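Comment thread on ticket #2218

A.B. wrote:
> Attaching the input chain for the structure job we discussed in standup.
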Amino acid sequence: MFKSGFISIVGRPNVGKSTLLNGILETKLAIMSDVAQTTRNTIQGIYTDEQSQMIFMDTPGIHKPQDRLGTFMNSTALNSIFGVDVVLFMAPCNEAIGKGDKFILERLKEADGPVFLILSKIDLLPREKVMEKLQEWTSLYDFKEIIPISSLENNNITTLLDVIKQYLPEGHMYYPKDQMTDHPERFVMAEFIREKILYFTREEVPHSVAIVIERMQVAEDGVMEIYATIVVDRQSQKGIIVGKQGAMIQKIRKNAKRDMTRFLQTQVHLELFVKVERDWRNKEKYLKEFGYNEDDY
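C.D. wrote:
> Ran it. Output below, let me know if you need it in another format.
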């Protein structure tokens, strides 16, 4: 009997949702950063084995929005609890339970499917402390399953997949066996660029960046040519991304190109440009252009 279904991963920013998805897929699909709100869109990752196909949705961290982009991200995440077979609520075992967590738990009462507590980062605490945190969480919500994990150490990931499988309905394969995401390659390439900007510029250019893939095509020599524009809020941010004598943008280009080459399994030629669009995160025109369309939610 073959099983298939959809699984939503929700939680506050920086609780390990993207790390979990990458660990399940055993490849880098969702970008990771300790900068809050790194994930902006729902990233769909497809795990297939002989008995099942699981479509995981890594959602933006649910937070108090400061602009229209933040509102879009919250809507994306909160709407993902409907119409799925399982909801994975992720929380790190080394952090206090706060108002944000309790807000999410209230919304999870409306979820269509069973809600699991995935207590992440258990490698950071002794076992007795992990158990104390589990008891604290279970006093707040009646979770269908509770699974402590460490994505970095691959601890309990196989157990998590086995338990999810028990809750999935009998069904067909939605995607080809070797497909890992439903996102177009252009989306994944843009995310690789954005991740490097977050990593190398840190707090200097936090959420003021959008990436537009202007052109992506295979040249006659078989090399994948990618031309992308980095959009920022202010002229000063453009200066940070370009860097002294172009050093920063070359570092971003070099490291993004490495991820692209690994993902596409082919040689890549990457060109990056930087453009200033003031306050784009609050302008509907740019939100739609950059793929953050509130009308879809």
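A.B. wrote:
> Thanks. Noting for the ticket: The CA atoms of residues 243 and 249 lie 7 Å apart.
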